[in-house]
Structures are given as C-alpha cells and as structure tokens.
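Appendix B. Raw example, untouched.
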Amino acid sequence: MKILVINCGSSTLKYKLFDMDSQKVLACGLAERIGEPGSRFRHQAAGREEIILEIDLPGHRQSVESLIGILTGSGRGVISDVREIAAVGHRVVHGGENFHQPVLVDQPELQMLEDCLDLAPLHNPSNLTGIKVCRSLIGHAPQVAVFDTAFHQTMPEKAYLYPIPYRYYSDYKIRKYGFHGTSHKYVAGRATEICGQGGQTRRVITCHLGNGSSLCAVLDGRSLDTTMGFTPLSGLMMGTRSGDVDPSIIPYLGEKEGLGPGQVLEMLNKKSGVLGISGLSSDFRDLERAAAEGHRQSRLALEMFNYRVAGSIGSLLPALGGLDLLVFTGGIGENSPGVRAGICELLSWLGIDLDPDRNLVRGIEAGISKPGSPVRVLVVPTDEEFMIARETLHITEINNK
C-alpha cells in the first residue's frame, strides 16, 4: 500500500511517498517558492541522486499537478499511475479541541478545519489548501489529516488551562494546545520499544529541540503536559523565538520603541531566542563554533538555552511523579552532543549519568547514558512523515472495515 504524505506551507510543499508494506520511502522532495519567481522542485527517488527541476508553480494546485507528473514520469518516476497512491496523509498544525486524533477528511471535517483557521493563521490555511487540492486531483484516495496538537489532547485541565478568567476558555478556547505532537508521539513510542515495555519505561520526557523546540511529559504513551501553549511562541527559548517572557514586556516595549503589539510579537517570534541573545545566528552549529572561539554572547545563548531546557524538564516531573527515560530528538537534540551534555549536567541530581563517549553520536538511535544510570537517556531521530503515514494507514483501514 502506497501512502503519500504532504506538508503544505505558504510557499512550500514537502512530500514523501511510502510503501507501507516494506515501510520504505520511495521518493521525497520539496516544492519551493510557490507563487514566487524562481519556483522549483527538489526531488529524490530512492536509490537515485536528487534532481532539481525549475518549474513555474503559481499555486499549490499546480504544485500537486507537477508532483503527480514527477512521481509517474518516465526516468524519475516511482509509480506508473497516480491510482497506485492508496491514501494521502496531511500534516495539519492546529486541530483545536475539535480533533483528538487523525481523521478522514470529508465535507464536515473540512468545515471543522475552517473553524480552526484563526488558531494558527500562519499555518492552517496552507494545510487546508493542500487538502482541498489533493481532494480535487487525487480524489480516488482517502485524505487524512494528522494534527500536531492531537497528541496533547490527553492533558488534564490543570495542565492546559491558563490562570485567567475561565470564560476566556469557554468563549474563545484560549488554553494550552501544545505542538510537535506527531514527533513527541513517535519518539516516545520508539524509545519505549528500544528499552522494552515495563515499569522502568513508563515515565518519559521527550525533548524535541530544533529551531522550534518543545518538551513533552509522556506517561504510558499519553501526553500529560508540554511546554508550548496557545501558540508555538511559548515555552522554551528557541532559534528565533523568545519562549516564555513576562507578558508586560509587550506593552512596555511598545511604549518605549513606538511599536504596535503585532510588531512586538514579530520581534518575539523572529528576532529573539538564541539569535537575539547571540546577535549572530539562530543556527546552533554557528553558535558552538563562535563560542569555542571566545564569542561571549554565543556562549551565553547556549548556556541560557541549556538552563531553560533543564528547568522545563524539572517543571514536568510533577506530571509524571518521576522519570525513567529522557529522549532527545530534532535537529539539535539529535546532532549536538554539547547541548545534550550541557542539559544533562544540570540534571545530574535527578539521577542522569551521561556517558561522554556514547554521547558523541549524531543522527542515529543510541543510548547515551552510562549503564546503571537511574534515568536512561536516548537519542531517537524523529520521523514525523512516517508517523503521519502510519496514522493515515490506520485511519484508512478502519474506514475500509
């Protein structure tokens, strides 16, 4: 069974085509600069070199049409006919409270997705466009929406409500939703598989650390709390995002700098985090090199990031009543031994005993704590696209029964 996974951004379309029988990727790629000059496809079929195709892509419909042509074309194609695609899985950033799990998208679900647009105005409109286009062009295949927020719908009220007048939740659904749920679900499940089911693997904290970062407290496979909130701006310090700050900063800076609330929020989203502190880069590789060369603000940015991640790990412990597994994933979590070591050093009191040699791994599954460490520490590369494909297969099978 072949499943196409699509992630539509405002000017991009990422995709992977899976053969779920063999659990292998047949092809993957990215359409870039949709609706802009210089649009193109980066496409790679399994076992072949990546190719770059300069194609005029005025919109997402033309992008999906071109994708179908690439997947079925002679020479670079991997299927003979589009009808080989049995289902399409779509990443959707925000499902609000409407969606607690992936869903088969039909007309009622489309309306419910429309109702969620104002919760994620930067992402959901593009996600919805991708679904509509695929329903039109790949209409024989079931369309399944998989939500970043769905995994966190198991959080209890005490974790997801904000201490503001309750009617703002009742009237406007202002609450913590959490994000990166597909990644957290995948790596928590995979870590438990690696370590084996049992009493010593029930309590897991997953650390999705990348340009966007969040933590999740997982008990018996269920999310009990997470660091991101109503939007992906809250929680940890990130590449360009501030994470949690005193909300009074917004009107204060507005008055001092002559900025509107939207301008301050743009600064908090795009000019803060390690970029804002270092004044150099949001890329941790740049910061680590600069810090090694004596750049004080880069070193400070890394120290702040590690400190805030460690503190947030501590804040999640009451949800679990302890900790069995600490799991690192995401571009930074998978590839920065220095960041992992800095975080774990601050948590040694918790029973984390990192093995310096094992911690040198990058981008592969590995246990990186010493034998006998009360808390086991792992690196598990995330695979959100495969998780979406697996969820899509499950929903499709249920609906075919």
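End of appendix B.
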